[in-house]
Design brief:
Number of strands: 7
Shape: globular
Number of domains: 1
CATH architecture: 2-Layer Sandwich
Strand order of the largest sheet: 2-3-4-5-1-6-7
Order of helices and strands: EHHEEEEHEEH
Strand content: 15-25%
Number of helices: 4
Helix content: 40-55%
CATH class: Alpha Beta
Largest sheet: 7 strands, antiparallel
Length: 147
């Protein structure tokens, strides 16, 4: 399970509902944007692992678990629910910073489906922490039941 972010190309004045409906149309791989994303993410997080099999690319950061994918022209990100509380707040803050790099380099806009909002309307990435805490609680209860 992971906390996911998705990216969509939205025309000026286009509603988010229309952008989400039209998401899969006219996607093209963008190696130039990918290179810019890799550079920007390395500037933020340091060393990352890259898997390249064009037209698909994946970037993973071991320390945070943040993953960025560019699949045949589409962009998405995820981070596993392995933190909670203040640690989750820090990871989500970094996730949103990486999302800003993807937005800048790709021209796509980020949408957070867990919050049901575009990233631009999320005033506090800490709003995601209750989701992380709930999942951590589920794993804690599951681990306690096994003991």
């Amino acid at each position: 399970m992971s906390y996911d972010l998705y990216f969509y190309r939205r025309d000026p004045g286009q509603s988010w509902d229309d952008a989400l409906t039209a998401a899969a149309s006219a996607l093209q791989p963008d190696p130039t944007a990918w290179d810019g994303v890799v550079t920007g993410v390395r500037d933020l997080l340091g060393e990352v692992n890259i898997v390249a099999y064009p037209p698909n690319w994946e970037l993973d950061h071991d320390g945070t678990g943040i993953c960025v994918n560019h699949w045949e022209g589409g962009w998405e990100m995820s981070v596993p629910y392995r933190t909670h509380g203040e640690a989750a707040r820090q990871v989500v803050g970094l996730l949103y910073e990486v999302a800003s790099v993807v937005e800048r380099e790709s021209g796509f806009e980020c949408f957070d489906p867990q919050l049901g909002l575009p990233k631009a309307q999320v005033t506090d990435p800490g709003a995601a922490v209750p989701t992380f805490d709930a999942v951590a609680g589920q794993y804690g209860r599951r681990d306690a039941a096994r003991a």
